[in-house]
Amino acid sequence: MNATPLVALVGNPNSGKSALFNALTGARQKVGNYPGVTVERHAGRTSFADGRPVELIDLPGAYSLDPSSPDERVTRDVVTGAQSGERLPDALIVVVDAANLDNHLRFTLQLIALGLPVVVALNMIDLAARDGLTLDPAALERELGVPVVPTVAVRRRGIDELKAALGEAVRQGPVVALRAGDNSVHEDIATLQRRARAISLAATVSETPVRRWTHAFDAVALHPVFGLALLGAILFVMFQAVFAWAQAPMDLIQAGFDALARFITATFPDSILRSLVVDGVIAGVGAVVVFLPQILILFFFILMLEASGYMVRAAFLMDRIMASVGLSGRAFIPLLSSFACAVPGIMATRTIEDEKDRLTTILIAPLMTCSARLPVYTLIIGALIPDTRVLPFVGLQGLVMFALYVMGIVGAFFAALVLRRTVTKGASSGFMMEMPKYQMPRARDIVLGLWTRAVIFLKRAGTIIATTTIILWALLSFPQPPAGSHVSPVDYSIAGRIANTVVQPIVQPIGFNRDISLALIPAMSAREVAVAAIGTVYSVDNPDSDNGNRAMIDNLRHRWSLATALAFLMWFVFAPQCISTIAITRRETNGWKWPAFMVGYLFVLAYIAAGATYWVATAIGL
Amino acid sequence: MDMSSRVILPVSLESLPRRQHATVAAIDWARLAVPEARRLRELGFDEGVEVEVLHRARLGSGPIACRIGRMTVALRRAVAGAIHVAPLAG
């Protein structure tokens, strides 16, 4: 055998596949995408018991080979060899939840019928035992005709046995030469289900009624009143943490970048290159990297909510409200993730089965206040909204921030309502979800998840954001005005001319000044670039003054009216200023039609909202 | 529709009292959309299977959570209304 054997992990949702994948591969994993569809491809390396390397891929959870969502389609296509860019696996590890055999065995039977070598991981056998269920793996092995290994993935139990069985299965090769299209694969679900139940019965030694603990907790978590109160409390703690816990590490990162800029300024003579590094790269990348702690805290909560099994309960509670705008409770999960970033949020919509429902969720996801808006909001609010108290404990600045979040949510619901009656009209989608057992999230899995997000974010800051700030810096710095000219360097530059002649006439009516016109174009790459762009504009404009955050705030106070600032904030609630979101939408919807529509409707909303805010604010004398 | 083939039963899963064990007597597949029906089968709903309502999201509307086998499944009421059940004694 020349190539490294490829083994795929397959199973129902909630069978503990990902935990098993983590246990088998450790940190040696790579997250990417399948070509053509944005379904994350989790690949990693492990080895057989004798040490030979194996490439392992973790496939999205599925209920059958008859896919009803994009990620289930990938699972089917990979195990049948139809997925482009992926070879047919040499063997499958079918993961089943020991406490849910009669359901999970149905999919197992379909997978065995494919004819690839199969090893069944009888996972979470400890929880099944705690649940009062005694199983006989040997009986199951006899009934299924393939090796069965009891495992407890989260405690790394049964992993060596699984590797040994896998090596043996690959060595023996395909048992029956069957492929997709063969009728036995597509046997009717009800028949397969009956066979699965019979096998499950044969493998069950004894059984007592099910998990009381999960039911007891659900009595509160799903309660019409207490459940909603609990959800509200969790969300409150989550957003509170994003702002409170992140402060110290953010100050530290900011101090680091400031020190670096000072060091370079002090060490090297004044030159164009130094200006590029300090004003362009360090200022631009620093302004963005500083938000890493907030993003990680937000993702920490979202990963915890998902891993614990609570997220599905939140979807259950929200279904009624989501149904009132034509969505389902399932949409709540991607929308909540979009508060961290719309990109993973939009990717999470792939579990929504109904196409129209999924499309609507994608189209409104950018309205959730993502963490990239925080730098913009924080800067403008800090500089221009008076730090006064409206009520005891309620500051005006905090209130404005809160109102911006609410505006996003209200806007999203309103947009969904309209979209579902017009462009994404269709039968109301259903809500049918398996509710997993509660479980303690494993520190290891959470850390791996956070690490992946941090790497993606830093790569983005280092590539897209660094590139756009360098380009902006160049466009702002050239050509330089002749000596003795009274024109400011910014107005004389290419960027200044574009902003003054092209952008300014369009945005003048809604109260935007030249600084905003300059910031809007580079901020198309990512919203947080607006902050870096405004900073760059001021430092190019006054090359001799101090470049820090303080100077920027002073500049803002002198140059911006309150009405302009409010209009600018309102613009950012709606405007689709994020290349990554547009790109992911294109990939998720397979074409330019929907991203073009999304960009169009959001810009129109942004223009109207910012304009209305400006006119009202001016009218009342702000 | 042929009246003789229609199963008329007083209780649907939607109106089954909480914690009352029951078996699925019949599922009115014709009332369900094709993907809904398929998902319902995939989750194990079939005639003769034991079910129980565990939670209702709100009075009057919102989904219900029910136990089927050893699994908990959330369903909308319209779907639960298409599942006819026979309550078990005890």
Protein topology:
The complex is a heterodimer of chains A (about 625) and B (about 90).
Chain A: E1 6-11, H1 17-25, E2 29-33, E3 40-47, E4 53-58, H2 70-79, E5 91-97, H3 101-113, E6 118-123, H4 125-130, E7 133-135, H5 137-144, E8 148-150, H6 159-172, H7 189-203, E9 204-207, H8 212-221, H9 226-244, H10 247-267, H11 272-289, H12 292-308, H13 310-324, H14 332-337, H15 342-348, H16 355-364, H17 373-384, E10 389-391, E11 394-395, H18 396-421, E12 432-435, H19 443-477, H20 489-492, H21 494-507, H22 514-520, H23 529-541, H24 549-559, H25 562-574, H26 579-589, H27 593-619
Parallel strand pairs in A: 1-4, 1-5, 5-6, 6-8
Antiparallel strand pairs in A: 2-3, 3-4, 7-9, 10-11
Helix pairs in contact in A: 3-7, 5-7, 9-12, 10-11, 11-19, 11-23, 12-19, 15-26, 16-18, 17-24, 17-25, 18-25, 19-23, 22-23, 25-27, 26-27
Chain B: E1 22-27, H1 34-42, E2 50-56, E3 64-68, E4 71-75, H2 77-80, E5 83-87
Antiparallel strand pairs in B: 1-2, 1-5, 2-3, 3-4
Describe this structure in words.
The complex is a heterodimer of chains A (622) and B (90). Chain A has 622 residues and is of the alpha/beta class. Chain A is elongated. Chain A has helices at residues 17-25, 70-79, 101-113, 125-130, 137-144, 159-172, 189-203, 212-221, 226-244, 247-267, 272-289, 292-308, 310-324, 332-337, 342-348, 355-364, 373-384, 396-421, 443-477, 489-492, 494-507, 514-520, 529-541, 549-559, 562-574, 579-589, 593-619; strands at residues 6-11, 29-33, 40-47, 53-58, 91-97, 118-123, 133-135, 148-150, 204-207, 389-391, 394-395, 432-435. The model of chain A is unreliable at 177-185 (pLDDT under 50). In chain A, a hairpin with a 2-residue loop joins β10 and β11. In chain A, α17 runs antiparallel to α25 (562-574). In chain A, the strands form three sheets. A seven-stranded mixed β-sheet of chain A has the order 2-3-4-1-5-6-8, sandwiched between helices. In chain A, strands 7-9 form a two-stranded antiparallel ribbon. Chain B has 90 residues and is α+β, with helices and mostly antiparallel strands. Chain B has a single domain (3-87), classed as Ferrous iron transport protein A (FeoA) (SH3 type barrels). In chain B, 14% of the residues lie in helices and 31% in strands. Chain B is built from two helices and five strands. Chain B has helices at residues 34-42, 77-80; strands spanning 22-27, 50-56, 64-68, 71-75, 83-87. Chain B has a five-stranded antiparallel β-sheet with strand order 4-3-2-1-5. In chain B, a hairpin with a 7-residue loop joins β2 (50-56) and β3. The termini of chain B are far apart. The model of chain B is unreliable at 1-9 (pLDDT under 50). β12 (432-435) of chain A pairs antiparallel with β4 of chain B.
